[in-house]
Every structure is written in C-alpha cells, then in structure tokens.
Amino acid sequence: MGSKQQTSISRVLGILSEWDKGTKQLRKKILEQFIIQNQNKTGPELEEEFVQAASLFLTRLTAWLRLTYMTGVCLNELLQAVAIFLSASSGHKFMAEFMEVGGTLTLLEIIGLKQAKETDKTEALKCLTCIANAGRKYKELICESYGIRAVAECLAKSKSEETQDACRNLLLMLAQGNPKFQNQV
Fold first, then answer.
1. One short Pfam family name for this protein (predicted)?
2. Is residue 182 part of a domain?
3. How far are the Cα atoms of 2, 46, 111, 119, 125 from residue 122, in angstroms, in the given order?
4. Cβ atoms within 10 A of the Cβ of 144, count?
C-alpha cells in the first residue's frame, strides 16, 4: 500500500471518527466541507474520495437525518449532502442504501412537517427528484409511499415560490413514464 493511499485512508478514518465523536457544530462543519468539495461528483469519484468507504459516511448521514429531522438541526446541510450521493451518476448503490433505510419516507415526512423551514422542504424535494430521476421503479416507490399526496399537500401549504416550483416539477416527473400512477397525479 502506497503512502498516498495510506494518507487517504487516515484522512477518511479521521473524518469518520470526528463525525462519531463530534458536536452539532463540528458535524455542521464536516457537512459544509463535504458539500463544497463533492458537488457534482460521480459515484466512483465519491468512492475514490472516501477510499471505497463512501457508504460508511452515507450511513452516518442517514442515521443522523432520521434521528434529528424533526428538530431541524443542520437539516439543510444534511439534505444537501444526501443529495450529492443521490445525484451522483453511477451511484445507484448509494440510492439503494438510502432507500433501504427508509430514506424516501423520511423525505416525505420532512416536506409534511409544519415546523420545517421552506428551504429544508425544498432540499428534501430535490432529494426526492433525484430518486424519481432514477427511473420508473423509483417513481413507483415514491408513489406507493403516498408521495403524490405528500407533495400535493406541501404544494398547497407552501408559502415559498421555490418550494412550490419544486413540488410542481416533482409531480410532473412522477406522472411521466409512470403509467401505474399517472392518473393519480
């Protein structure tokens, strides 16, 4: 193992260790750095960045998301970081991992929370759009989770034009190429 690879492994282990021991402020800082450094990366690039351990970081993100989304702690940053994984081309593995732990339901719950900020709802809708973009199977999973109703309610209650646009776009996407649920949308 080369010294460069050893350095990369040490860096990733350091990030994961900091996350595990970190305060809310430290985790927010880690999230902000991750967002800046990893925008528009592909799945393989994320794996390279995390020395084939990107899933370990995604697991930590989804666990913290599920534990804290009702309080709103770093919610926007968490959702942006999750969106990086969900939107990564050739990153279907990440999407599958996120969905296996109930990520879709969590996102649908976030857009229905009265106390959630509009910006957080918009980020959750962006994550749902990434999932819907992955194809018919994923659109059906969102719809089977009462996603059409959740998105329509979010659209009706939203005061933000950006959130309303995200809702409309997601509903249009859920209707296209999804014959099983097209009439419901």
1. DUF5578
2. no
3. 43, 24, 8, 5, 5
4. 12
**pLDDT at site 6:** 85
Q: Domain for residue 70, yes or no?
A: yes
CATH classification at residue 61: 1.25.10.10
Residue 109 domain flag: yes
CA distances from 96 to 5, 6, 14, 59, 108 (A): 27, 29, 26, 12, 17
pLDDT, mean of each 10-residue run, the chain (185 residues): 79 94 96 97 95 95 96 96 97 96 98 97 98 96 97 97 98 93 83
User: Structural domain tally of the chain?
Assistant: 1
State the pLDDT at residue 131: 98
d(CA 28, CA 45): 22
- Rounded Cα distance, 171 and 83, in Å: 18
Range of the domain at 92: 3-175
